[in-house]
Each structure stands twice: as structure tokens, then as C-alpha cells.
């Protein structure tokens, strides 16, 4: 049991997963010891740097969300993956851990023996999805080994299928850098890219925005992010009032607190960028070892923050546009008499920014803004529809925030409600067909939806 707990802890650490992948790849390439050591440590340190920056961002988004709720008198459900998972672990800990382990093994087997060569490396998102599946399948009446094996297969299958769905768009974002999207907000990013292709021109990129020389300092991502976010914090602080902000600031002047929080947010983004560069610098060469020796043609599916460096200006535009979409979605839910989904700053920053990047890749500035706005609407409506299928977890004041969680939860839960366990077996069968059929037909490349990998 202690070993299983240790294994669970390792599998919940994306930094260690990435390090293990680099280690295996470098050993497969027969690199000398010093290169194996540095090539293993750098992706681990890079991910820890990314996580530290993301944690700093989340820490400083929390008071902004509270000030917005207070200043604009909004109450409702706030989607937050970490919050709902922490609640769920009190009743679903063993099931979640077991599904996680089975899911990771299934993902590797799929990558080895099918044309879905995508290896999902974002361990914490695998953990979140394992938790969602344990809740939805448990509510549908499954339990024990049946629940674990069904949930593990669904997790492993979706970990391989979801990167493949939009790999064409991902290649446009990265200019064929050999990575895939390993994040369970992926369907919304692909929708954003599709919307971008319909409303704009990729040549009109956010990264080509011409700025007069006197405004040239805005080209510095850290500076432009600091200015943008400080404005948001000050606006929220003014709306909330100095008395309320004083309860958050720990004695600091309310408006100075808002300014410092905005500046700290920008520092967090910069740390994320630095971590991403360190990860990619060593992970991609090491992954060639896995691609050539262990899982031929394997493609690493990595966290959404890894894509931020490809279009830093789109990150800011995407966040703002997604948050506006979240506000509009909340108002529409209010008019419809549904539960209010308050825009969560964390999902709107990370998912909105990524949607902006994907929208920009196909539709430039208009694609970034409109695509991310659509993402904001999507991650407002799906959490509201997801609540009823979560069973007892649906009565909490938080829920899963990213789009794929909502889609899978709603589809599985709805079929289970209509057909019982038969509905779940239908989904398992469909996933199996999707995974196996490409093995028997001619495709453009050896990797499904990624013809560049030959």
C-alpha cells in the first residue's frame, strides 16, 4: 500500500513525469552520463519553475476574483479544478488514484500499438480527469474494479485522442515543433482556432502589431502584462472599496496592494515563460529517443502554458477576451434562470490565453479576440450543465473549469442517466473503435492527424 501511495505521489508530479520521459529518451539514445543528468534535471527544474510561476499567478488572481465579486455584487459557483478535486478526494481518493495509474498505462499502450502516438505528460490534469471520471461513473452506479478499469480506459483513450483532434492547429501554433496539446481544455482551443479561421487572417498576427517608437516598451511582454493587469486590479479595487480591500491587503494601502498584485502577476507570467524555455530546450531532443527506440514516432503532449512563448501578445488578448466572454455567459445564464457561473480568473487566464494563441494562429488579431471570447462562453455554459451529473459533488460551490471536463462529464453522465451502465459501455466501445480503425486504413502519416511525423 505504501508503494502504491508513493507511485500515486510520483504520478501526480508533472515535473517528475517529464524528467522520467527525458531520462528514458536519453538512455535510449545512449547519451553520456553528464548529458543524461543535465537533460533529466533541466526539464524537471523548468517545470518546477513553470509551476512556481503559475502558483504565483493563481495566488495573485485570488484577491482579484474576490474584489470583483464584492465590487459587482456577484454570487454563484466559481469553477476551479483544484478546489473541486480537493473536495472529491475525501470520498473518492482510492478510485481516483487507481484510475490515474490505469489511465497512464493505457495511454502508453495506445501510443505504442496504435497510430495515436501522443503521450500525455500533464500529470496533474490526468489526476483531475481521473477524479471527474470516478465521480461521474460512481454516480452512474459503477463501483470497484469495473469503475477503475472503465475510468482508466476512458482516461488513457482521451489522453491520446484529444491531442490528435487538433494537432493540425497545434502545428500551426508551434510551426511544427513536434509537440502536442496535453491539456483538458483542448476542445475549446481547437474551436477557437476554427473560429479564428472564419473571422480573420493569420497574417495579421497579434505578434506583428506595430507599436510607435514611443510606445516601444509595450513590446516587452513583462512590461505590457504588468500595465494591463495593474489596470484591472485598480479597477476591481475601486469597485470593491477600500474597506473591503483592506481585509485582503494585510494592512497595506488598498490601492498600493492592487498595484503590487498586478506587478506580481506579471512576474509570475515571466517565470512561466522562463520555465517553458528550459523544458523545451532539453525535453524535445530527449523525446527523440522515445520516438525512435521505445514508442516509434511518439509525440509529447504538454501543458497549455508551454504554448505561451509562441504568441505572448495573444496571451494577454486571449485572457481579456475570454474573461469578457465569461461575464457575458454569466449574464446569459442569469437571464435563463440557471445557476450563475462566476468567471474564474484561473481558467480564464490559462485557457483564455491558450485559446487566444490558437485563434491567432489561424485568424490573427480578430481570431485571437473572437476565438478566446467563444472560449469564455464555452467555459461558462459547460460547468453549469456539468453540475447535475456530478452527484453529491454537484452541490458544492465549485466545479471543474476547463472545457474537456465539461464535455466528457456531460456526455458520459447523460448517457448513463438514459441507458444506465449500457450507456458507459457504448462510450467505451466508440473510443475503442476510434483508436483501432486508423490502424487498418491508409493515413497521410504514421501518426494520426500529424502527417509531418514520417
Protein traits:
454 residues, mainly alpha, 3-stranded parallel β-sheet, two-stranded parallel sheet, 5 strands, 72% helix, globular, transport, phosphotransferase system, Ascorbate-PTS_EIIC, transmembrane helix
Characterization of the model:
The chain is an all-alpha fold and about 450 residues long. It has helices at about 1-10, 15-30, 35-70, 80-115, 125-140, 145-165, 165-175, 185-200, 220-240, 240-250, 255-295, 310-335, 345-385, 405-420, 420-435, and strands at about 80, 120, 180, 300, 400. The protein has a 3-stranded parallel beta sheet, with helices on both faces. Helix 4 (about 80-115) crosses helix 6. Keywords: Cell membrane, Membrane, Phosphotransferase system, Sugar transport, Transferase, Transmembrane, Transmembrane helix, Transport. GO terms for molecular function: transferase activity.
Rg is 22 Å
Helical proportion?
over 70%
Helix and strand succession? HHHEHEHHHEHHHHEHHEHH
Q: What's the number of helices?
A: 15
Strand content: under 5%
Runs in which pLDDT lies below 50 for 5 or more consecutive residues are: none
Shape: globular
- Total strands: 5
Distance between the termini: 43 Å
Strand order of the largest sheet: 2-4-3
> How many discrete domains?
1
Write down the overall mean pLDDT: 86
Category by helix and strand content? mainly alpha
